[in-house]
Amino acid sequence: MRTAYSVETVRAAERELMARLPEGALMQRAAAGLAAVCAGLLTRRRGRVYGARVALLVGPGDNGGDALYAGARLARRGAGVTAVPMDPERLHAGGLAALRAAGGRLAQAVPDRPDLVVDGLLGIGGRGGLRPAAAALAGQIPQGVPVVAVDLPSGIDADTGEVAGPAVTADVTVTFGAYKPGLLIDPGASAAGAVHLVDIGLQLPAPEAEALQHADVARLLPVPTASSDKYRRGVVGILAGSAQYPGAAVLAVAGALRGGAGAVRYAGPAAEAVLARYPETLIGRGRVQAWVAGPGLGEGRAGEVAELLAQDVPVLVDADGLRGLDAGLLRARTAPTLLTPHAGEAAALLGVPRESVEAGRLAAARALAERYGAAVLLKGSTTLVASGRAASGGGRPVRVNPTGTSWLATAGSGDVLSGLAGSLLAAGLSGADAGAVAAYLHGLAGRLVAGAGAPVLAHEVAEALPAAWRDVRTP
Ligand SMILES: NC(=O)C1=CN([C@@H]2O[C@H](COP(=O)(O)OP(=O)(O)OC[C@H]3O[C@@H](n4cnc5c(N)ncnc54)[C@H](OP(=O)(O)O)[C@@H]3O)[C@@H](O)[C@H]2O)[C@@H](O)CC1
Ligand SMILES: Nc1ncnc2c1ncn2[C@@H]1O[C@H](COP(=O)(O)OP(=O)(O)O)[C@@H](O)[C@H]1O
Ligand SMILES: [K+]
Q1: Which of 337, 339, 378 is nearest to 360 (CA)?
Q2: Best mutation site among 245, 400, 405, 413 for ligand 2, i.e. most ligand atoms within 8 A of its Cβ?
Q3: Ligand 2 within 6 A of 396 CB?
Q4: CB neighbours (10 Å) of residue 299?
Q5: pLDDT tens-digit profile of 158-170?
Q6: Quick one: how far is CA 212 from the chain centroid?
């Protein structure tokens, strides 16, 4: 499990540790880790550190201090290091002295053709969009030169991944003590590139966000045993599809068949299309351990969805099923509920513009889970899963899905996801676990189909799910 912590939590742990260590020790640990990553990158690209040209963008706080101390370490190994301050009057004094002593120099602008740019403008002390002096320096980063961000790319919000105005886009981010949520959630995650965590010895409490990894997912997968039969493995019911959208039913069933339930039951007007593709499907209503309600239902079917929600059985609500959901009805439920909106559907449920959901994904997922008392899987470039307060007691970290590819932004891939997650619900996973495991497998399957980069069809994602299962279960 990869865990991420808020700025407030990191600061508290930092204070606690600093009180026990000699002054400046933490910054030295951070600078040593940063310099090591920079040296590795320079060595891979040009064979050695000696003679490399390194430009440091240096802000007024400790983030700039880290950059200056790391620059001093690189200068001692023979790199030509130039520090470009955001404000020459406000520079970390100790860091500047160390850089100077090592032979580094100060300049007013980024020199021509550096081999590496180090972004030490702002770290966890950054607030709001970059101010003009910082934005001007960020704008001087030459195209094609690798950028290493110190702690986080300047201009992204450490707690949320939100970006207000210009921000640095890094190839590598060297972060200290703990991942911050903004490094895992887009648009911040995309700006961070590959993230290296440098352990500086912080003792941390419960995380704000977490990302499952293969071993975590493998532990949650429902795997049949000698005593299993198809009913014990769970039956998932699919209420999906319409005369207009029969394909949504087929795709949801495709996802469900590959999700680990023992049987898939389809209820709706697209039975013929479903059976033609998947003769394994049971047709018509009957006893199930979870329902998936919504993909391709079209308009005017809210009554059918409400009927399912009135039953004491886990329900996943997606797509058309999300229209006009009654928060009171959902909050009164005791069985797990999982909502799987994309940004547009989430915006409608919250009554806010779509852009505000896209810019503030973490807050939106949390607000939905809180308002509807349900687990929420918010789809998109970073899929998030927030636990429902009523269902699970709340206060749990938001799950950030680390798999996936933008090739998954294709019609019908969400239908496959909802079938898959519903199947996991029927197999006995909680709403949040079913959502997180489904997003993980779906993202892996999407990557397997996209390969080095090629368009992906939704039914191919469903077909690649067994390979994703095997990948996850291979130690
Ligand atoms: N935590 C740890 O364990 C460790 C932390 N360490 C390091 O310390 C870093 C945090 O340092 P920090 O607290 O000095 O803040 P930092 O990010 O340098 O920025 C503050 C300055 O930026 C300014 N400023 C703010 N917003 C701005 C904007 N939008 N545009 C322009 N300017 C803006 C703000 O100005 P002011 O608002 O005061 O006018 C202030 O002067 C952390 O990220 C890590 O690198 C490691 O060394 C060791 C272990
Ligand atoms: N930019 C993106 N990067 C990665 N995944 C994406 C992106 N946009 C959408 N997705 C994923 O693609 C799927 C699309 O689902 P959805 O919007 O419901 O489409 P549909 O309704 O056509 O099935 C979701 O799993 C979502 O997370
Ligand atoms: K930075």
Answers
A1: 378
A2: 413
A3: no
A4: 9
A5: 999 999 999 999 9
A6: 10
